[in-house]
Write a structure and sequence with these properties.
Two copies of one chain form a homodimer. Chain A is α/β, with parallel strands linked by helices. Chain A is built from 13 helices and 16 strands. Chain A is 35% helix and 19% strand. Chains A and B meet through α6, α9, β11, α10 and β15 of A and α6, α9, β11, α10 and β15 of B.
């Protein structure tokens, strides 16, 4: 049988490490696994029969793939409709899989992707199709239920904590009489995992940046927040604040700077600006604000070695899951020990976790709602450990394109 | 005699490498140089007699200092008034220097700082004070005249070009039917050096990000710009744009996103947001925008080895300048060869370059004004070469505070 690997949703700095793990593990079973195809641009690529043959990637290319950010095969955002609503889309997908002798589908995504894994697994069983569908976790948001952490998160966490430590030293050296603030807006629409990670920059030092961490789990209270900012500036001359992009007021409204696109989707971004402006208007301080946006999830030049290892391990485990017939399952990380950190891989039922979202537990959030706790730091600390060597060409990371060949189509064209 | 070293204006990822160069070089001349004091928070700290004794920094601390971002001794923004307007401030400064037997002042700053160097040098000579004042260049903006490049620029350039390459792979993998754009806003109020540096991410590949580079030297033409964005999206499905923060329209107005908050106050966003919104509103594409702000000038985890070496070398050279009595001068980088890159240090008269600003030369800007040329890339390429080893503790760069002791005051208190 052949395997099909597909990337889904927002990509990460180590999603291709998972891909490399899948491909390398599959090659260790030449008796049971033929080719590993990759869907070009996610499940929509699979539906369009746009498949890439990963056989052209030699060992050196695989090693380079593992250290390349973005989704090397392309990703997409697509929710599989209910089979009762649109059976044709399932027909098509199974046709593509059958046409290319694909017996295992490895779907690398987040909460929504596990929904697809569960749906596809159920429908394949109902139709008697011998397909093994396995979910492979990834997300910088760290919000998948059933796993101790998610590949992609540790590297984004390391990047953001490093950035807060570095920028914190910058603003500390620029302290002026009138006081100054620095606001770092990080990803996290509904959960504050990445915001919490910036607290690692301060460690045990209560006077080190970030002085305040605002997460979506805690409704934003202007007055409480401003009083704390003023207190920190009074003590240190400056204040560094981390803001989750999805920060909300008590009535549920997201902070300023939202806009609607033509399709009516809310485009987020700008909670950091809103908070910075608020401080400026109410307290008069000089302000700087940074929004790393894609930079935080693509910084392959500064990934966490632990995250990188877990990304590869879960890719490899998903191949084992296919071989073991663990249909509709997702390999997850289980924390065995905190110090020294130890972990292993365990199976989780995709249907049990699909579309759920893991928020910061209450014990990770300080009672005043303006920072995270030592428990949070203990949880986060192991995930940012270690660095991965970066190969550079002309002073920049070597991210040349890969030599990937499209697989000849065997089916008629399909339109969505 | 003792030396006084002071940091001025916006700091960089390698300004402390210059400081370490100063301190190390001074220690090699125990017969001629006593202590190296650092002004706490720049020239204002010197005026307040807030001096720090760098003698407490041992060799290991100096090595760590060189790799620490921000200004370890504190910086400030302050322009020395004309002596005719405010002779008292000169009196005070010379009093502080005399009280601590300071015979050499090393002032580490940008264009404005060279004005202070020239003024102070002139006034000391007029008064017959045997002070040697030396300017030491630093700025991420790369806009100091008389030097081939400025310490701090190469590292910010490397960080931004790396970020564009990484984020470019991210957005390329997320291509959707409706088209998408990514806008990276970089520093540069009047000059496009940092924006130009992001072009290194693409190298010779015309289809690689960034597809468009907008610099303050070229007035922003909405229609020409939007037509190019549409063409790139038509060809590739996405478009990555670099925008200088100081981008201006033909009438000289800076491009800023204006929005109104609930109270009716105008909120100013950055040029990057303005450009992203413009694209979205006129062309309908999905957009992401990043503003690294302080992150781009403090990313000590990813500095250029060439920049780092030059920062140290100019610190060391400034001590030689003091010893050689090169009063009112600034050591500058001269480019001797491009490939392989070679450079040396030459003296420049501070008075000749003070307050001037070096823009991108016309031959570095593409005829259509929407990108930079191969000449620009040839100039920039050597400046981002090589990496510097980062020491980490618990997964983050080791930036513990330094053990610095205040020097006992010998003068009455001073108020500005």
């Amino acid at each position: 049988m052949n395997l099909l690997y597909a990337q889904s949703g927002g990509v990460t700095a180590v999603i291709n490490a998972t891909a490399a793990g899948v491909i390398a593990a599959a090659r260790e079973h030449p008796q049971r696994i033929g080719k590993v195809f990759a869907a070009h641009r996610g499940i929509l690529g699979a539906l369009a029969e746009n498949l890439l043959d990963t056989g052209s990637l030699d060992t050196a290319a695989l090693a380079r793939l593992a250290r390349t950010p973005g989704g090397a095969f392309g990703s997409c955002r697509f929710d599989l409709p209910d089979v009762a609503v649109n059976p044709a889309i399932y027909d098509r997908l199974f046709d593509v899989l059958a046409a290319h002798d694909i017996g295992g589908l490895l779907y690398n995504g987040g909460n929504g992707s596990m929904d697809l894994v569960a749906r596809l697994s159920t429908e394949a069983r109902r139709r008697g199709i011998p397909l093994v569908t396995v979910g492979v976790p990834k997300t910088v948001d760290n919000d998948i239920v059933g796993t101790d952490c998610c590949p992609g998160f540790g590297s984004a966490a390391k990047y953001l904590a490093t950035s807060m430590r570095e920028a914190g030293l910058d603003i500390a050296s620029m302290v002026a009489d009138r006081g100054s603030v620095f606001v770092l807006e990080v990803m996290g629409r509904n959960t504050g995992w990445l915001a919490a990670a910036t607290a690692l920059a301060a460690g045990e030092d209560a006077d080190a940046p970030p002085h305040i961490v605002l997460v979506p789990e805690v409704p934003f209270d202007e007055e409480v927040f401003l009083a704390r900012v003023a207190a920190v500036v009074g003590r240190l001359g400056y204040c560094a604040v981390t803001v989750s992009e999805g920060l909300r007021r008590a009535d549920g409204r997201i902070l300023l700077e939202k806009s609607h696109d033509r399709a009516g989707h809310v485009q987020l971004g700008g909670a950091g600006l809103a908070v910075a402006r608020l401080i400026h208007e109410r307290l008069g301080y000089k302000f700087h604000w940074a929004i790393p946006d894609y930079l935080q999830r693509s910084a392959a030049h500064w990934v966490s070695a632990v995250d990188y290892a877990q990304a590869i391990a879960l890719g490899r485990a998903s191949v084992d899951f296919v071989l073991d017939g663990r249909d509709g399952m997702m390999p997850a990380i289980r924390r065995l020990a905190e110090s020294p950190y130890d972990w292993d891989v365990v199976p989780v039922e995709a249907a049990h976790i699909a579309n759920l979202e893991r928020s910061l537990p209450p014990e990770f959030i300080a009672p005043d709602g303006l920072h995270v706790t030592a428990s949070a730091r203990r949880y986060l600390q192991p995930l940012i450990q270690g660095e991965v060597t970066v190969t550079t060409v002309d002073g920049l990371p070597d991210h040349r394109p890969f030599d990937l060949h499209p697989v000849a189509r065997r089916l008629p064209e399909w339109t969505r």
